[in-house]
Amino acid sequence: MTKTRNMRICCRSLAAVLAASMAMPGLAGAQSAWPAAKPVTMIVPFAAGGPTDVIARRYAEFISRDIGQSVVVENVAGAGGTTGSARAAKAAPDGYTIQIGQAGTHVSAVGLFKKLPYDPVNDYEHLGLAGDLPQVLIVKKDLPVNSFKEFVDYIKTNGEKMNIGTAGPGSSSHMGASMLNLRLGSKAALVQYRGTGPAMNDLVAGQIEAMVEVSLTATPQIQAGTVKPLAVFRTARVASLPDVPSTDEFGVPGLDFAVWAGFLAPKGTPKDIVDKLNTSIRKANVDKSLRDTMTPLGVEAPDDAKNTPAGFRDFIKAEIDRWVPLMRSAGMQLN
Ligand code: MLT
To answer: pLDDT value at position 258?
Structure first.
């Protein structure tokens, strides 16, 4: 009898300890419970309808199925993607907030802003890359130019009257358009939107003259004939747009700013969660139905062997080391 009662006490204490450990973040029980407690929020730092948003939604759907918990996309647009990226960096590191970042928010913004509210290398756990996309110069349908060569002549004389739409300061479309102005010595105004989704609406409506947009969202408009493609910002043509010449073919090299997209979590997110999300992203990268929608739109899958959290972190660092000094020496910093 006594023995039984002691055992009951003992079992009750054990149950209490287990319950307490489940409730305390950082203990093994809490980590292994992820993602049972609530949906995971995926911050998209741009407006809906742009390439970052499109990629995020496709991956959110896949990851959600894979981890057995909803992944809810939240668009936190503004300041060229830096508002949403800062929010993600400062979120609780519990695996319930992640973000999609890209070459704009996590590379060119470092060079363009004097001070960023986050450090792309040290303020995050790096979950994995989703791919790389070429940028394409597209112009409104009735702009009186039909080749990149004609565009170069046109912008030199009409540049000051021209508007190029971008996703805001620091974004990759801003970077592409700034490099174009710099390379051609032109002075087209850069019009800042909260993402290239709304900028594209204005380009199609003829409110602005041009955009340097990635293939993912440029291609459907090119195919529908609502905008004219003039050149891809690559050293050679890309398979998804075989009829569009590369800028290098016109003797204008150095514009190939590769727009990668990848996923990040706040620094301190537990390693087992980081590893689970890395596995899920890598599965998505080779998933046939996902690839069938991404490849025709020019999204190039990353090298899986390098797509570990450490590999992705090193990649971002290398891209910053490569682009930021070039941007600084070209005087591309914003005031
Ligand atoms: C960019 O220009 O950085 C992106 O295309 C923005 C977006 O996804 O809207």
So the answer is: 83
Q: Which domains does the chain have, with CATH numbers?
A: 40-132+259-329 (3.40.190.150), 135-250 (3.40.190.10)
C-alpha 49 – ligand 1 centre gap (Å):
10
Length of the chain: 335
Other CB atoms within a 10 A radius of the CB of residue 64 amount to 18
**Alpha-carbon distance values, 51 to 37, 56, 79, 261 (Å):** 30, 8, 17, 9
Residue 64 Cβ contacting ligand 1 at under 6 Å: no
195 Cβ inside 6 Å of ligand 1: yes
Angle between helices 271-285 and 309-329 (to 10 degrees): 80
Q: What is the mean pLDDT of residues 301-322?
A: 97
Quick one: pLDDT at residue 32?
55
* 40-49, 204-213, 252-261, 264-273: range with lowest mean pLDDT: 252-261
